[in-house]
Amino acid sequence: MEKWSLMTITVLLALTVRWTVSLGSYSGAGKPPMYGDYEAQRHWQEVTYNLPVRQWYFNTSDNNLLYWGLDYPPLTAYHSFLCAYIAKLINPDWIALHTSRGYESQPHKLFMRTTVFVADLLIYIPAVILYCFSLKETSTKKKASICALCILLYPGLILIDHGHFQYPLSLGFALWALLCLSYEWDLLGAVAFCLALNYKQMELYHSLPFFCYLLGKCFKKGLKGKGLVLLTKLAGTVVVSFAVCWLPFCTDMAQIMQVLRRLFPIDRGLFEACMFSSPPPRSTCSDKVANIWCSLSVLIKIKNVVSPQTQLKLSFAVTFLSLLPTCIKLTVQPSLRAFKFALVSCALSFFLFSFQVHEKSILLVSVPVCLILNEIPFMATWFLLVSTFSMLPLLLKDGLLLPYAVMMLAFLSVCVAAFSIFEKTSAEDLQLKPFSLSLKGYVSWFKSFPKIVRSLFLLSLTLMGVLSLASAAVPPPQRLPDLFPVSVSVISCLHFLLFLVYFNVVILWDSKNRSQKKIS
Question: Where is the secretion signal located (predicted)?
Fold first, then answer.
C-alpha cells in the first residue's frame, strides 16, 4: 500500500507540473500565417478527418503541403484522425476544412492540451513507473518513487510536450519496448518499437541499438537452434507490424513512395533551420540546432560549398562511423545495461551528425539518459540540464522563459536531494574505473578527477545561467542579431561532443560480464 501511495503522490505531482505548464503559451500562438506546431497538429486533424486516406500525403487543392503538410508516418495520421473524431463531436468548427486554418480559442486550447495530457497519462507515465519498479537498484519502494519523480520532472520533455506542443507517444512506445525487452518479452518489445517508429521516423535514432541487441541475443542462443527460431519470429513480427500500420497505403506503390518522400525530404539539404550569418545579413531562421553541422556553419558555409547529395553522403558516413563501435560491442556482448547506454550513444551520434536534425530531437537522447539516471546520476543530471538549455531559443520564442527557469532549478534541486550527485563524481561512480585502469601510468591523474568534474559542472551551470539571462534580457548587437541563439547552440554542441566521448568510453571499456536483470 505504501508503495502505491508514494507513487501516487509522485504521479500527481508530475501531472500537476504538466498541467501548470500547459496553461501558458504554445508554439505559434497568434502568429500568422504559419502559426506553429500547435496549428500543425490541429491541421493534421483537419486533413485526416475531411480527406480520404489516399490524399493525406499528396498536394491537392484541399491539402496544401506547403502549409503544414503531413510529414510523419501513418500512426501519427491515425492518431490525428482519432483526435479529430472527438473534436468533431465537441465543435465541428475546430476541424472544418479550409475555414478552420489558424483556429484559436480557449475551449480548443483546452481540448488540444487535454489530448497531450491523456497521451502522457496513458502511454509515457505508466512506462516510466513500471520501469523504475523493475530496476534492481531501486528495489525499495521509496527509491523507485524518487527515481520516477526525477524522470517525470525532466524539464525538456515537459516544456516541449506541454508548453511548445507535441505528443509523447513515440518516446512512450520506445520506453514500453525497452521495458518488454527487460522482461525478455522480445516479440512484444519488437511490436512496441515498430509502433514508435511508425509514429515518428526519428525513432530511427534508437533503431540500431534495438536491432543489435536482439541480433546479439540470437547469436548468443545459436543461429542453428533457438537463436534462428527467435530471429525468424522477430523478423515476422516486424513485417506484420509494419504491414498493419501501412495497410491503407499498400494498395498503390505511388502512395508508399509519396509517404516516404514526405518522411525523408532529402532535397532540403543537410539542415534548414540553422542558417547562421556573420555579420550583416540577418539569418533567415531563428531556430538553431546544437549539432555539429549547424555549429560548423558559423565558420564554414557548408550548404554553399557542398552539394545536397554530397551533404547526405557525408552525414551518413560520419554518423555511421561514430556509432559503429558501440553497435559492434552491443552485438558481440548483448546485455540490458549495454543496450541502455547504446540507446544514449547512438541517439546522440544521430543528433550530432545526421541529416535534417531539429532542436527537439535532443529529446530522443534525453529519454534514454533518464533511464540511466540511477546508474550515473551526476553525468545524467548534467546532460539533462544541457539538453533543456540547448532548446532555449525555441522556448523563448514560445514565451516559456519562466517555466524553463523554474523547472531547471527544481529539477537540479530534486536530483541533488535524491541522488546526492556531488558525492558521486569518482571514476568508479562515473563508470570510468576500467578506463582509468587501462591508462596505467596516468592513473594518478584520476585522484583529482572528482574535483575537476565538479568544477566543470559548476562552470557549465554558470555559463548556462548567464547565457539564459542574456538571451532573455539583453538586446543583441545590431551587427550580430543571432549572437545569443548561436552561442547557445555552439556551447551545447561542445557539451554534447564531450558527452558522446564519455558514453562511448563507458560502453567500450565496460569489461564486466553483467548478466541481464531478471525481474520477478
Answer: 1-24
504 is a domain residue: yes
- Let me know if residue 44 belongs to a domain: no
Residue 511's pLDDT is: 65
Q: Per the domain annotation, does 300 fall within a domain?
A: yes
Q: Over 90: is that where the pLDDT of 385 sits?
A: yes
Which domain, by its residues, includes 207?
A: 167-263
Residue range 232-254: mean pLDDT, rounded: 94
User: CB–CB of 347/316 below 8 Å?
Assistant: no
Q: How many angstroms separate the CA atoms of 339 and 375, rounded? A: 14
pLDDT at 68 exceeding the cut of 90: yes
Give mean pLDDT, residues 182-202. Answer: 96
Q: Is residue 118 part of a domain?
A: no
Same domain, 259 and 294: no
**Taking Cα atoms as reference points, which of 511, 506, 501 lies closest to residue 322?**
501
Domain count, the chain: 2
Beta pairing partners, 63? 60
Same domain membership, residue 299 and residue 254: no
pLDDT digits 0-9 by tens, 458-480: 999 999 999 999 999 999 998 98
Return the biggest CA–CA distance within the chain: 73
Tell whether 342 and 470 lie within a shared domain: yes
**Residues 339 and 410 grouped into a single domain:** yes
Number of C-beta neighbours around residue 485 at 10 A? 24
Residue 152 has a pLDDT of 96
Mean pLDDT of 257-281: 65
Do 231 and 352 lie in one domain? The reply is: no
Q: For residues 403 and 394, is the Cβ–Cβ distance under 8 A?
A: no
Q: CA–CA separation, 74 vs 250, rounded Å? A: 12
Eight-state DSSP code of residue 282 = P
